[in-house]
Amino acid sequence: MSVPSYKRILLKLSGEVLMGEQQFGIDTDYVARVAQEVKDARDSGLEICLVIGGGNIFRGMAGAAKGMDRAQADYMGMLATVMNALAMQSALEQLGVPTRVQSAIEMDKVCEPVIRRRAERHLEKGRIVIFAAGVGAPYFTTDSGAALRAAEMKCDALLKGTSVDGVYDADPKKDATAKRYDTVDYDTVLADNLKVMDASAVALCRDNNIPIVVFSIRERGNLARVLAGEGTQTIVKQGA
Ligand code: UDP
Predict the structure, then answer these.
(1) Which of 22, 60, 132, 227 maximizes the CB count within 10 A of its CB?
(2) What does the radius of gyration of the chain's CA atoms come to, in whole angstroms?
């Protein structure tokens, strides 16, 4: 596989990545480990935007399933992503990496609002920008938030760091014959309903020609390998 020449990436981490081996919440040691990998990537000269989910704390769908109003539950989920963003900012700054959090829900005591031009300036200065609260609206996920920010910040790729090492044609936990794709087309992902990101996020990446790189962030050193075009991953792109 040829070495990708990314200059600016958006790295999306599922909230569950922050729990480490725990069942819930934030494992600060694990967050520090991931922060070190993000720092290494940034020290190699990359501009990095981060989006972190909230599933380790609260998911709107789970609240709705227990009878909560869906929109209300989704706002709680968005607040969870702000907590995760602050935890990651803290870990990155302890490693000496200047980091700014921009939230789609304004919260001026704790972070900046999303302002694209300001985010641009942060990146130029070598800061990492963490975009929190997804798109700032219920009925969406942080995958859609990641696709939106990747498009508006003109990122060369959206890297999705998760617990699985790519995209499979069936659930690898349930089907031993499940096959992992090295590359797969956006339209195949949408038509076959493959588990990558939600459909609105995939469509937004397709329409803006942003490759989606799905890899496991749980394996130590994997982010660097994936950025070097090595390691195990699936790339979702046009004409794969
Ligand atoms: N959420 C939302 N709008 C957004 C982003 C997130 O309503 O634009 C809510 C939604 O309830 C979601 C929760 O925040 O379940 C946490 O985000 P997500 O499920 O994407 O986190 P992840 O699965 O990546 O940890």
Answers:
(1) 132
(2) 17
